[in-house]
Backbone:
């Protein structure tokens, strides 16, 4: 049993409230009071106070005296949730530094393939200096998905860019930062070689026990052919892509191979992004058949700040429009996201004893337009906004 799950079982009482405490003799460093605390990992959803000490969650209780803490934050009317985890971003650009993600409540994020084996030090340098936690999916293409103005997309000409030996060398050197391998399998990148590129990605990942994330949408081969190669723990991103080779058949029904893949342990990620990754029609049809994401990610890059994506809380809000409950949505960017990569174990929860990464959200009522990648829109009545962030026990927003 994972450590966080064991702790949760120890501290959750029959009434569904935290009953244990880790109280230092000197009191708490910070107290968050009066918010609706939602911790999907522990099945906890109640108005409560959260105490922090030494950078860790110390106690959650209905009322904790303010005199027990050096400082306090009034979270009345707000949601208090584990620090958001975005498993698919692109943090490669100086114009979109990690601090901007942190300001929107993302305390942990995973760059999904911006760099490959030959240039991954560029983004590791960003990760080393980030105020939040940045880990990497190394692209199977040695130059990543931004190879420069004079280079063709990775695999249109040959498989040379998918160099397994160079991938192994990079992981051996930078393994503390690399949590998986990314393979873009759309025709514009892989041409007719999607299955071969996927096999190379698995060859890079396998010796290190790492998962592979595949980017689908307009692939040369039907999705069932790709799913047949994936292993338990591997990830399909852009799961609501509306191309002929998506998760639905021509009649709009889920492919049986997609259902079988989830039962096998393959994970499905949303990956909002900007270009042909999803539309409302596919999302609504899939949701109507009970096929919801394991994780909800933004695929945020510089243009996404001003169009469609904006930030992870906005992306999460789209799934309230699709009928998911608030705890279900929060789980997709906290506990479920942490479970995607073993290196994130212990994150995505408010369990006492774990790192105090916390996001304060407002669930605002009104009329909010949510747009897909094809300018299709839906008007929702609720939207999440970030109102505060605690990272490692320190209030940063």
Residues:
């Amino acid at each position: 049993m994972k450590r966080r799950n064991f702790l949760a079982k120890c501290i959750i009482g029959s009434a569904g409230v935290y009953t244990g405490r880790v109280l230092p003799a000197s009191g708490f460093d910070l107290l968050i009071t009066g918010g609706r605390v939602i911790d999907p990992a522990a099945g906890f959803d109640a108005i409560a106070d959260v105490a922090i000490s030494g950078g860790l969650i110390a106690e959650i209780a209905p009322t904790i005296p303010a005199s027990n803490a050096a400082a306090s934050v009034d979270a009345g009317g707000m949601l208090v949730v584990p620090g958001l985890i975005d498993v698919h971003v692109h943090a490669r650009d100086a114009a979109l530094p990690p601090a901007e993600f942190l300001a929107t409540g993302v305390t942990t994020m995973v760059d999904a393939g911006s760099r490959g084996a030959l240039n991954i030090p560029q983004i590791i340098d960003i990760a080393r200096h980030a105020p939040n936690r940045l880990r990497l999916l190394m692209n199977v293409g040695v130059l990543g998905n931004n190879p420069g103005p004079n280079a063709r997309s990775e695999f249109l000409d040959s498989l040379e860019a998918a160099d397994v030996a160079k991938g192994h060398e990079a992981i051996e050197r930078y393994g503390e930062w690399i949590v998986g391998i990314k393979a873009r399998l759309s025709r514009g990148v892989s041409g007719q070689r999607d299955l071969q590129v996927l096999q190379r990605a698995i060859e890079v990942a396998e010796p290190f026990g790492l998962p592979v994330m595949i980017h689908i949408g307009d692939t040369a081969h039907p999705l069932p052919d790709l799913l047949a190669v994936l292993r338990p723990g591997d990830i399909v991103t852009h799961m609501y892509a509306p191309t002929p080779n998506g998760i639905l058949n021509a009649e709009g029904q889920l492919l049986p191979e997609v259902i079988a893949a989830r039962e096998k342990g393959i994970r499905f990620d949303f990956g909002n992004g900007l270009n042909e990754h999803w539309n409302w029609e596919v999302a609504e049809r899939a949701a109507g058949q009970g096929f919801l994401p394991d994780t909800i990610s933004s695929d945020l890059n510089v243009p996404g700040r001003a169009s469609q994506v904006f930030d992870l809380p906005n992306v999460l809000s789209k799934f309230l429009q699709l009928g998911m409950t608030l705890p279900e949505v929060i789980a997709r960017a906290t506990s479920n996201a942490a479970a995607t990569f073993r290196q994130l174990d212990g994150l995505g929860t408010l369990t006492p004893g774990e790192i105090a990464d916390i996001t304060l959200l407002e669930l605002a009522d009104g009329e909010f337009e949510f747009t897909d990648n094809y300018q299709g829109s839906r008007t929702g009545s609720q939207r999440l906004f970030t109102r505060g962030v605690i990272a490692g026990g320190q209030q940063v927003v």
Notes: The chain has twelve helices and 15 strands. The CA atoms of residues 121 and 353 lie 33 Å apart. The longest helix spans residues 194-205.
